[in-house]
Amino acid sequence: MSNSKNLNTAVIYGSARRDRHGIKAARFIVRKLKDRGHDVTLVDSQEYELPMLDWMYKEYESGQAPEAMQQVADILKAADGFIVISAEYNHSIPAALKNLLDHFQSEYLYKPSGIITYSAGPFGGVRALVNLRAILAELGTPSIPSAFPVSQIFKAFDDDGTALDTTYDERIVKFLDEFEWYSTALQHARNRQQCSVDSPIQQQMCRG
Q1: Interhelix angle 167-197/200-207, nearest 10 degrees
Q2: Mind listing the pLDDT tens digit for each residue in 7-60?
Q3: Residue 170, φ and ψ in degrees, nearest 5
């Protein structure tokens, strides 16, 4: 059963390659999340084109961060959880994805992440998955136990993100059920913490 009421999810995809196939997986997951009632925003490194990391978002004075960086920060702040989509490059994640992730910090805290990896070969990018789990945990967005590897990405989805193999439609259900459980649980925990430190009027609103 879906627990997606009021969940806001950011789908993070980082690839700088011209003929990238992972964008199809991103479109697939965006569609599946919307079908389950999520508010979804795709954060695509090609769209926002953040510079190579010099200053993190938090190091800028308020209102002084580059426009694209501010836009991404606002998306991440509003999100209840993140789906991170990664290729496998030389047993790790793409530089574009790492660069995007590393610009931010507090925006991730106490929110879960779900990992989708892909490759052209049969193993679905699972070696990148191992590295990505450690990165996301360090950023403060620990990944859920389940993962969603995609093998032979070039023939898994069409350009609109429709699965060409129906097993992906079946497999994604358990993955998203689990992601929603963690997203909802941590959303409630953050709300309780907020209520415990705010004004009496806000506490009364929380009880109501």
Answers
A1: 140
A2: 999 999 999 888 899 999 999 999 999 999 999 999 999 999 999 999 999 999
A3: -75, -45
Question: What is the rounded distance in angstroms from the CA atom of residue 111 to the CA atom of residue 160?
Answer: 28
Rounded Cα gap, residues 34 and 51, in angstroms: 30
Q: Is the pLDDT at 1 greater than 90, yes or no?
A: no
Burial 160-198 (b: 16+ CB within 10 A, else e): ebebeeeebeebbeebbeebbebbbebbeeeeeeeeeee
- Count of CB atoms within 10 A of residue 74's CB? 12
| Beta-carbon count within 10 A of 154 CB | 11
Start-end of H helices in the chain: 22-35, 45-48, 67-78, 95-102, 126-139, 167-197, 200-207
CATH label, 8-207, candidates 3.40.50.360, 3.40.50.1360, 3.30.465.10, 1.10.3860.10: 3.40.50.360
Spatial distance between the Cα atoms of 26 and 23, rounded to a whole number of angstroms: 5
**111-158 pLDDT, tens digit each:** 999 999 999 999 999 999 999 999 999 999 999 999 999 999 999 999
Angle between helix 95-102 and helix 126-139 axes, rounded to 10 deg = 10
Model-level pTM?
A: 0.90
